[in-house]
């Protein structure tokens, strides 16, 4: 027989009573602040190391609680040590809808002799009044969610934490404002491969430190895992769904970025590496590389990369086609001066359309009101360029899942010699 729980302890029934009404609410997004005395077990995984004995520190029940409640701030103080963990994600990249990050902060004992931090001052806007896109923005130092691997390894035990009949530990949980990677590479490769289907070529580099990738979105990019061609530390490459041509691809940041002008320097650098690799890849097949971006009525940056056969037209022909069709739509498409960064003319939040030609000439239009969503495809599909006008709308170019898998497999194999993610 179990002894009755002490007044300062909690049981699984207590946790269930706290959690279930919240997670069963379809509008629940997480909590703003969670206070517990115990640390969540394993919170340091993929993050910076704390100055505590990690073999004995923390509670699995609290870890399970934190995973389910997704607090924006989680405070604990039982260990008497100061520890501010790098923020961690609350979703799996490319697999789940994006969530806000969690910041775990442990505080030392008040007036401790070592003068370790025991106070934490901060401002917080309740998530219920925040713009969703602002809420889910990911900081540059974000890491993978530390508890998921633990919960996967101990799935049944974790489930039992919220079932009647088991006893918890000595901890107190306080909820305020209830609203709404085995390493990084391993976790993401497994997600893309569908847990071992063999569809994803495993990198030989073994690179990618925890937290090297940022994420995620207001909603993650709607790219199905079987369309992924290559994945780096900050970006990945995917075959375009309903592409203009078989080698039409997308470069996407792993983290949530609305547009190119919002990118951090690390993401820009890796995106440039993908551009360079694609240019070499297309050149080997007698094609030129055309890129365009539409930062308008989109939730996540997608840089469209379309190869155009060299023998169909010149770069000047492509530039003229964009200019002429823009004029017909009563849009002023301007050429960006050489060595001018897009950030200099398009502050964050500015809706725009942007084209980068293989000559490195760049065309830009600041969207005022209405903008044809398929404009980039319409120009490239026109008779003057690819001469496939019926493919201007991607919805008219859909393939079956089997056809997509076959095309992507072929494209992945073709691109592999140019894929820097395969380098040793």
TrEMBL record:
Gene Ontology CC terms, in alphabetical order: post-mRNA release spliceosomal complex
GO MF, one example: RNA lariat debranching enzyme activator activity
InterPro entries the record matches: Cwf19-like (IPR040194), Cwf19-like_C_dom-1 (IPR006768), Cwf19-like_C_dom-2 (IPR006767), HIT-like_sf (IPR036265)
Domain Cwf19-like C-terminal intervals: 221-311
Protein name: CWF19-like protein 1
BP terms from Gene Ontology: mRNA splicing, via spliceosome
Highest taxon of the lineage: Eukaryota
Coiled coil location: none
Region annotated Disordered, chain positions: 198-221
Domain Cwf19-like protein C-terminal: 329-420
Database matches in Pfam families: CwfJ_C_1, CwfJ_C_2
Cited SUPFAM superfamilies: HIT-like (SSF54197)
Family that this chain belongs to: Belongs to the CWF19 family.
């Amino acid at each position: 027989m179990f002894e009755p729980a002490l007044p300062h302890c909690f049981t699984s029934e207590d946790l269930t009573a706290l959690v279930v009404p919240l997670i069963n609410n379809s509008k629940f997004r997480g909590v703003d602040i969670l206070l517990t005395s115990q640390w969540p077990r394993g919170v340091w995984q993929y993050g910076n190391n704390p100055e505590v004995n990690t073999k004995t520190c923390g509670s699995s029940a609290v870890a399970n609680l934190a995973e389910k409640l997704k607090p924006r701030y989680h405070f604990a103080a039982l260990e008497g040590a100061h520890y501010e963990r790098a923020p961690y994600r609350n979703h799996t990249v490319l697999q789940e809808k994006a969530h806000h990050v969690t910041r775990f902060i442990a505080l030392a004992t008040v007036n401790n002799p070592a003068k370790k931090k025991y106070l934490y001052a901060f401002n917080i806007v309740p998530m219920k009044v925040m713009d969703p896109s602002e809420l889910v923005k990911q900081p540059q130092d974000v890491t993978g969610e530390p508890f998921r691997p633990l919960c996967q390894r101990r799935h049944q035990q974790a489930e039992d934490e919220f079932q009647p009949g088991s006893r918890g530990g000595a901890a107190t949980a306080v909820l305020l404002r209830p609203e709404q990677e085995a390493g990084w590479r391993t976790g993401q490769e497994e997600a893309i491969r569908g847990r071992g289907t063999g569809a994803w070529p495993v990198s030989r580099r073994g690179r990618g430190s925890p937290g090297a990738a940022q994420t995620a979105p207001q909603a993650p990019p709607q790219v199905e895992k079987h369309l992924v061609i290559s994945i780096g530390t900050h970006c990945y490459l995917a075959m375009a769904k309903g592409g203009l041509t078989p080698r039409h691809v997308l470069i996407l940041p792993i983290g949530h970025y609305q547009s190119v002008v919002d990118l951090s320097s690390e993401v820009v650098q890796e995106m440039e590496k993908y551009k360079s690799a694609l240019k070499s890849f297309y050149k080997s097949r007698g094609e030129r590389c055309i890129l365009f971006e539409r930062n308008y009525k989109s939730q996540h940056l997608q840089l469209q990369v379309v190869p155009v056969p060299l023998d169909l037209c010149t770069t000047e022909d492509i530039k003229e086609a964009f200019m002429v069709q823009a004029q017909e739509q009563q849009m002023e498409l301007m050429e960006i001066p050489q060595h001018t960064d897009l950030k200099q003319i398009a502050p964050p939040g500015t809706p725009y359309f942007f084209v980068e030609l293989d000559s490195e000439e760049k065309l830009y239009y600041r969207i005022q009101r209405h903008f044809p969503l398929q404009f980039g495809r319409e120009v490239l599909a026109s008779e003057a360029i690819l001469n496939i006008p019926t493919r201007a709308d991607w919805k008219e170019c859909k393939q079956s899942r089997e056809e997509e898998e076959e095309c992507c497999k072929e494209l992945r194999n073709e691109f592999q010699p140019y894929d820097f993610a395969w380098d040793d």
